[in-house]
Amino acid sequence: MAEPSPTAMPTLRQLLARAHLRLILFAVLMAGLTLTVTGVTVIRGYAARNLTLIAQTVAYTVEPALVFDDVDAARRGIATVAASESVRSVELHGRDGRLIAAWNQPDRGMTGGLSRIVDALFWPSPVRVPVHHGPVVVAEVQVFGDAGGLGRYILSGVATALACLGLTIVATQLLARRLQRDVTGPLAHIADVAHAVRTDRQFDRRVPAAGIQEVDQFARDFNALLDELDEWHAGILNENRILERQATRDPLTGLGNRAMFERELTATMAQADESDTSFAVIYVDVNRFKQVNDSHGHDAGDVMLIVIAARLRMALRPGDMAFRLGGDEFALILAAGSTRTEADQLSGQIGEGMIQPIMLPSGVSIRSSLSIGSALYPQDSVDPRALLRHADAAMYAAKARGDGRN
Amino acid sequence: MRSLLFWLLLMTPTVTVALPLARPVAMPIGPGPDRMAAGVARMVGSILEFTRWPTERPVVRMCMAGAVAHGDQLDEISLSNGARIATVALAADDAAPAARCDALYLGSLDAAVRQRLIAAVRGNAVLTIAEDDRDCAGGAMFCLLFAPQTLSFQLNIDAVSRSTVRVDPRVLRVAKGGY
């Protein structure tokens, strides 16, 4: 799989993790906010009712004390009822607004200043309840609420939300990892195969089933595409082979052509150099080929060339190669390690092979003969052109001598 | 240890409620030439405020028995529901005080006479207040307690429960040795 580019392109997992984080963050915040607001509203409602109840109880309790004109008893009565967490202070005012008695929640130390602000925020005004005696209002009770409970509720809500957020981040990572394994795993398979096909030409690789509908569909299409690519590739190879064959073979005789001869000569020279041995090149020319062509037609000439090529091929030993250089000219390259003796022996063998007459399509049987000349590498020359010239010269010398009996 | 703490916490409200009861109401007695009489009038008025007769009394007939020391201003009381107080002197040998009195204010009396009067109104709608009975053993429902600067009272719960007069239970909490 190709390495991701160094530019900050996000991975699928990062994308998934980010999406999850946003989603869960949103959900937690919404839930937390809703719960907190609802909770604060409900609790404040209950607290307000509680304060009213406390105020009414205070009013009921202090009524006799007020009638008996005993401030101390009134104060004690207030303390008895108001000794609750939800009350900051209670004040008892006379009909003329004069403060008769007051009670304050014992100071809460360090948090006192802060909680006083919170108290003022949640309970900007006290709960007021009149103290009745018969039809007469004798005093008014004012109860100031304490927001400590509410504050603790909000604080614990915030703490819970933060803890949830921490869990959320961990869960997001786990979820993303899992999703990545399930989703990007199959995709990575496909990418792997694509890479192998592109760089290593492994057209036989196929993507395994993914187990996810969309990815599976994609993988199937991808595999089908690979099938087509494979076929196409095989076709190209075949065509190339044919083209190469056309380029290096003589179509009539099936022997290698001049281009292939030159290539093989170079290769064999290198081979001989490497193993420090010699090899022979043999030139063959058909005697009186032009006359056959002229008197029996080109078809007869072609048949003659095919037969001669077949006989040359039959004379070859393993490692030897035969070529048709053009017209009635043939050449042989004996395998590296061959000697002059072997070359002469093979030349003789080939010449003898021509004694048998050749049957032409017209029914006429004619006899042909060859002029053969050889050169030995590296004894005769180390230069390919000079070597060929040497062989050519030997062949013409043989022709001039009239070897081959014709 | 934890269960002890639990019980302590559980008992705390009870204790805080019970604590103030150890101290009775202390009505301050104001200045003036007749300060005791004024204090007694306010105290009796306050008691009457929390007293309910089976039927409403527009005029509370208060019978004075024995040698009353501080009852001069009792007929000046006016209650929040508009009722007035009418003081009536009661002879020590009155045969049927229950028929003529809504309240019985007992001054200094011979123990036997007091007992007879209280027995005569027992079971009737008559409120009894003793001015001169520090131990509150004479059977009156309320006994006034005099201190140099303040005035308080004691409640005889047995007498209150025998009477058909209803006393607001909150008064119990401001009485000496209340509940």
UniProtKB/TrEMBL annotation, chain A:
<feature type="transmembrane region" description="Helical">
    <location>
        <begin position="153"/>
        <end position="176"/>
    </location>
</feature>
<dbReference type="InterPro" id="IPR003660">
    <property type="entry name" value="HAMP_dom"/>
</dbReference>
<keyword id="KW-1133">Transmembrane helix</keyword>
<dbReference type="InterPro" id="IPR000160">
    <property type="entry name" value="GGDEF_dom"/>
</dbReference>
<feature type="domain" description="HAMP">
    <location>
        <begin position="181"/>
        <end position="234"/>
    </location>
</feature>
<dbReference type="InterPro" id="IPR029787">
    <property type="entry name" value="Nucleotide_cyclase"/>
</dbReference>
<dbReference type="GO" id="GO:0016020">
    <property type="term" value="C:membrane"/>
</dbReference>
<dbReference type="InterPro" id="IPR043128">
    <property type="entry name" value="Rev_trsase/Diguanyl_cyclase"/>
</dbReference>
<dbReference type="InterPro" id="IPR033417">
    <property type="entry name" value="CHASE8"/>
</dbReference>
<dbReference type="Pfam" id="PF00990">
    <property type="entry name" value="GGDEF"/>
</dbReference>
<dbReference type="Pfam" id="PF17152">
    <property type="entry name" value="CHASE8"/>
</dbReference>
<feature type="domain" description="GGDEF">
    <location>
        <begin position="277"/>
        <end position="406"/>
    </location>
</feature>
<keyword id="KW-0812">Transmembrane</keyword>
<keyword id="KW-0472">Membrane</keyword>
<protein>
    <submittedName>
        <fullName>Diguanylate cyclase (GGDEF)-like protein</fullName>
    </submittedName>
</protein>
<feature type="transmembrane region" description="Helical">
    <location>
        <begin position="21"/>
        <end position="43"/>
    </location>
</feature>
<dbReference type="GO" id="GO:0007165">
    <property type="term" value="P:signal transduction"/>
</dbReference>
<dbReference type="InterPro" id="IPR052163">
    <property type="entry name" value="DGC-Regulatory_Protein"/>
</dbReference>
UniProtKB/TrEMBL annotation, chain B:
<dbReference type="Pfam" id="PF13689">
    <property type="entry name" value="DUF4154"/>
</dbReference>
<dbReference type="InterPro" id="IPR025293">
    <property type="entry name" value="YfiR/HmsC-like"/>
</dbReference>
<protein>
    <recommendedName>
        <fullName>YfiR family protein</fullName>
    </recommendedName>
</protein>
